[in-house]
Amino acid sequence: MTTSLSTVEFALKQAAQTLRSLPHKTFAGYASYWPDVVRSTPESWLARPYQNNTPHKSTPREISAMDEVLNWLFILTPEERRIVWARACNIPWRALEDHDGRSHVTLRKIHRRGLASIALALDAEMQETQTEARSRCRVHSFQGESTSRGALPARINVI
Q1: In a domain, 115, yes or no
Q2: Domain that holds residue 71
Q3: Model confidence, pTM
């Protein structure tokens, strides 16, 4: 079974949604009296204030899935990671073009390459897991019995 790019993209979007829905903790007694930082246009879309408009509460299962999906990002190069995660957070291609300075066609190629890298790594990991499971399952025959063509295997031990 192979992992499709749309499956990887959906999982990344779910992880971004889960991360967005986590409660934002502020600590009493800590305040900054410095004025707000004036940012340039490309920086401003990255430094938006925290907005949690979703009433959705993340479940422990969603948070565990998010942790696993966020580890997938370390498979990628920093360039791919930035673009794949930005797209998972629904940042428009136009904003990415302005920030990165490259065309949306190039950014889409990088995005697709990143999703493909994750899918290949997941497939390799799944195949490795299946191989390990097969190696733990050994077929043993009873002593003194010969296995003929029509005979069933004697015994299967799972270690």
Answers
A1: yes
A2: 5-23+53-158
A3: 0.64
